[in-house]
Q: What sequence folds into this?
């Protein structure tokens, strides 16, 4: 790209000019009407989620390239769909831009978004670009799910195993390494890169869904039918409750328990963290990143023990059963080895350091 | 409302507090998961449209109350759905807010939105509220349409009549009366109020769709089949092309002609304007408001003469056949009475005053 093009600002080409420039990121058949039309499969419910991201609040050129900001915003919305059991159909992108923003910045943002979306065959099907004093990105994602396969937070039952689909704490560790490079002095690049990558390019776990459906399908039909019956009042037809861990693992488990009217016990040492943590961070720090760090975009699922074990085995590395659903309403962090005292997890208090 | 509550700011209750306050505007079954789930009808396509509105750019407390800003933003999105032939399923609302915005302002915004939405049985099914230096409203609306009833811009054919579903210019006149009250000195309140109302509370023309389907259904089946065959390549299965007139009547007709590869002739005196215009505005000014004023949110439809006449008759007041689709690519404004010379309409040039 020559330097003139690279320094071109949004105000130089206007909203219409920018729209034309961005059309290559959208399927051609979508463009040119008042709204986009998408074909849905029969007997599917529509699932919709939306996010607003503001420059300086949710992303910053300091820690995030425009490509990564684009990827992350798309990934966050696809993760919400995965957390509902839904397959993505498309996203719309609303963009508020100051005139001084570089056109190349916007193109790089779209590049990052589409890189993420293409991995999951998801098109950008619409958008709006307007003038604004602050760069703002509003994404709405929609997907479809068979009504019997909707994963709700409210469907956890006592005795369920709690599964996480991957390690936690990596995204927060990556962010800290970007903000304070000196923290990584004792790490080599092979150790640092995956953590930073986890922050910049989180993977929505849409890949978990077909594995989950296959396992549930192959489990005893009677068992599933009984479970489903038990959960009928809880608005779910499958024996799975869940959400994603975008706001942290502790948040996810607390939200599920609250919505389901149950409690939980988590086993400290079952919570999977990146291997690098073991020789880099004190155990408490590692646990804090894992529980409260956020933005790991894994799924947190509550399901019968047998299905949970099969799921963890199929998913492999990083996936684990981290605890079980209990009666009551408290979410307890327990250390089997009794090195740490039990701790009640709460959203308002955050992590309680054991030595404080 | 007591004065303490009335002056409460967003930062006083936080995003979570505000979300809780706004839940009463959403159906209760929607709340509490990563995304909203909506049931769609079988054999329907999904239609999606999105708009971003920024304080100071798209709305202002000077001319627009928060209720009206809410109504208008919802109406604009529903109008896009109507323009595609789609029935609304729901909208999501993304909101960026400075901490200093009054909570009551946000509640009044939602009040206006839901007043408009309720008229069309459309729920707010999701949203996001974030901190931002400037008040920003991102709405995504989705609806459904039978694949054979999608109204596209690209389906106009030579010989079609061009129908508008109501008067044009009212919204612009209302805005001018709000900005410059002195313009309305010669008008009484009964004349001013409907114009101002047209600006503040535009009506998306979803009501037109069932009438349109009924007329097309009752027209000669052979005729419709022939027309549909002719339009097959144009991605439409019904003999109707169209869009809404949110960006002005001239814009709508030019966009349809461009997408369909046709031209059009408009008859000056057939373009319906509010009755008040006749004794208030010079004819040229009235025509300029009607063609370029924008935000009337009527539908502009191209369809066979017989269907067009039936539609206008059913819709009644304000609806009219304003011209016909021609070969070529120019959109001509013609005066049957030959008082004005013919004028080629264009988006870049705007209205050409006859005396200039």
A:
């Amino acid at each position: 790209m020559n330097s003139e093009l690279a320094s071109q600002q949004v105000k130089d080409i206007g909203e219409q000019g920018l729209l034309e420039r961005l059309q290559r990121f959208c399927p051609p058949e979508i463009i040119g009407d008042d709204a986009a039309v998408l074909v849905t499969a029969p007997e599917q419910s529509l699932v919709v989620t939306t996010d607003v991201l503001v420059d300086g609040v949710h992303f910053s050129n300091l820690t995030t390239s425009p490509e990564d900001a684009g990827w992350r915003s798309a990934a966050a919305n696809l993760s919400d769909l995965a957390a509902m059991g839904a397959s993505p159909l498309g996203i719309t992108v609303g963009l508020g831009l100051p005139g001084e923003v570089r056109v190349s910045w916007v193109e790089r943002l779209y590049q990052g978004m589409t890189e993420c979306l293409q991995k999951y065959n998801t098109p950008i099907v619409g958008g709006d670009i307007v003038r604004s004093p602050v760069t703002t990105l509003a994404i709405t994602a929609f997907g479809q799910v068979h009504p019997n396969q909707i994963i709700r937070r409210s469907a956890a039952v006592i005795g369920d195993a709690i599964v996480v689909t991957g390690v936690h704490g990596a995204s927060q560790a990556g962010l800290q390494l970007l903000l304070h490079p000196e923290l990584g002095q004792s790490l080599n690049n092979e150790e640092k890169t995956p953590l930073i990558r986890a922050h910049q390019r989180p993977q929505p776990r849409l890949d978990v869904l077909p594995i989950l459906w296959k396992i549930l399908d192959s489990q005893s039909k009677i068992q599933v039918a009984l479970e489903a019956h038990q959960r009928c009042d809880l608005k779910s037809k499958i024996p799975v409750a869940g959400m994603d861990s975008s706001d942290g693992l502790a948040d996810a488990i607390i939200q599920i328990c609250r919505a389901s009217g149950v409690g939980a016990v988590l086993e400290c040492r079952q919570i999977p963290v990146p291997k690098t943590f073991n020789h880099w961070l004190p155990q408490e720090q590692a646990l804090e990143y894992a529980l409260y760090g956020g933005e790991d975009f894994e799924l947190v699922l509550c399901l019968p023990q047998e299905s949970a074990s099969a799921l963890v085995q199929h998913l492999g590395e990083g996936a684990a059963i981290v605890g079980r659903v209990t009666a009551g309403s408290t979410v307890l962090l327990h250390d089997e080895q009794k090195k740490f005292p039990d701790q009640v997890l709460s959203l308002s208090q955050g992590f309680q350091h054991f030595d404080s």
User: Anything to note?
Assistant: The domain at 151-344 of chain A is CATH 3.90.650.10 (Phosphoribosyl-aminoimidazole Synthetase; Chain A, domain 2). Chain A touches chain B through 65 residues (CB under 8 Å).
